[in-house]
Amino acid sequence: MSNIKDRDWLTERDRNSKYRASQNKKILNIYQLLSYFWYFSSFDSIYQ
After folding, report:
1. What does the alpha-carbon distance between residue 25 and residue 11 come to, in Å, rounded to a whole number?
2. What does the alpha-carbon distance between residue 20 and residue 36 come to, in Å, rounded to a whole number?
3. Which of 34, 15, 11 lies closest to 23 in space, CA to CA?
4. Degrees to nearest 5, angle at CA 38 with 48 and 34
5. Pairwise CA distance, residues 12 & 6, whole Å
6. Please, what is the end-to-end C-alpha distance for the chain in angstroms?
7. Which pTM does this prediction carry?
8. Integer angstrom CA distances of residue 8 from 3, 17, 18, 20
9. pLDDT (0 to 100) of residue 2
10. CA–CA separation, 30 and 23 (whole Å)
11. Angstrom distances, CA of residue 38 to CA of 8, 18, 27, 35, 48
12. Which of 20, 29, 38, 44 sits in a 20 to 30 Å window from 2, CA-based?
């Protein structure tokens, strides 16, 4: 009985961690895009 309960808890925890990881990935992608944009815009200002 406790075994099944533990397994349920593990799958729930796994699902939560996967969800959190995907959220973190989204945030990272946005951050990367912003940093690339800043990088290229700074290059633009150097060459003007």
Report:
1. 21
2. 24
3. 15
4. 155
5. 10
6. 71
7. 0.49
8. 9, 14, 15, 18
9. 61
10. 11
11. 45, 30, 17, 5, 16
12. 20
Of the CA atoms within 13 Å of residue 5, those in its CB half-sphere come to 2
Q: Where are the alpha helices (DSSP H) in 1-48?
A: 2-47
Domain range annotation of the chain: 1-48
Residue 3 tokens, joined: 């075994």
The pLDDT tens digits of the residues spanning 1-48 come to: 566 677 787 888 888 898 898 998 999 999 999 999 998 888 877 666
Distance CA 40, CA 34 (A): 10
